[in-house]
Write a structure and sequence with these properties.
Length: about 200
């Protein structure tokens, strides 16, 4: 049963006319954290060992693990609200492309940090998040945990950045060119609550 199907719909839940508070908070909060994470990755690739790179890159593990936890929460919340979310605007082909694009975004948001976490847990160097040691250093590296991250984490991380850039471009196209309510549903929430508020 959908959460928004209850008698008096909660402002937290999604509705067909817009996203609720939980989805919007997760969406924009994660957008900020991803901007920070990608800024750090770019500095790491282009300006390694500069003071600004050291500062931002020092948070890469902790912000990455936070994003990993948030995307799992967001996926669970999305599934709980699946029946009451807004439908994609536009012709069927475009709506299908939007569904596939969002699935790819979710898949990469889960896979990219998961590969890095498994690598960090298995490389024998120890693994701390926000100063809390989750895995102590020592022991032989576990190749099965380390190799997939070595091969794919950076590559899929950049692929995710390309998809995010496409996602932003399409959202702006909806707002500026098609002038439909797609972006507004994520910025302002359901129409009914806009009328009340
Ligand atoms: C959604 C979260 C994450 C994103 C988007 C992300 C993105 C990236 C990107 C784009 C790079 C390539 C940087 C370069 O080419 O120099 C990278 C590298 C790296 N990341 Fe992440 N990362 C995330 C989470 C994590 C986590 C959770 C960890 C550790 C537990 C981690 C550890 C590393 C390490 C050690 C590198 C350097 C080695 C390599 O390129 O694989 N990342 N990350």
């Amino acid at each position: 049963m959908s959460i928004a199907g209850a008698q008096s719909p909660s402002p937290l839940a999604d509705r067909p006319t817009g996203y609720g508070l939980v989805t919007r908070t997760l969406h924009w909060g994660m957008a900020l954290l991803f901007a920070w994470q990608f800024a750090g990755a770019m500095l790491h690739a282009l300006a390694e060992r500069t003071p600004v790179e050291r500062f931002v890159w020092a948070t890469h593990y902790s912000v990455g693990v936070t994003l990993w936890a948030l995307v799992l929460a967001r996926g669970a919340w999305g599934l709980a609200n699946l029946g009451s979310r807004p439908r994609h605007e536009g012709p069927p082909l475009l709506a299908r492309a939007a569904t596939l694009g969002h699935l790819a975004l979710y898949a990469l948001m889960v896979v990219v940090p998961t590969l890095a976490i498994l690598r960090a847990a298995g490389n024998g160097r120890g693994f701390s998040v926000y100063g809390l040691q989750l895995v102590a250093p020592g022991g032989e590296p576990n190749a099965a945990l380390v190799a997939p991250g070595n091969v794919l984490h950076g590559f899929l991380g950049w692929t995710l950045l390309v998809l995010v850039a496409g996602h932003v471009a399409v959202a702006l196209w909806h707002a500026r060119v098609r002038r439909d309510g797609t972006l507004r549903r994520m910025t302002h929430g359901p129409e009914e609550s806009r009328l009340i508020g």
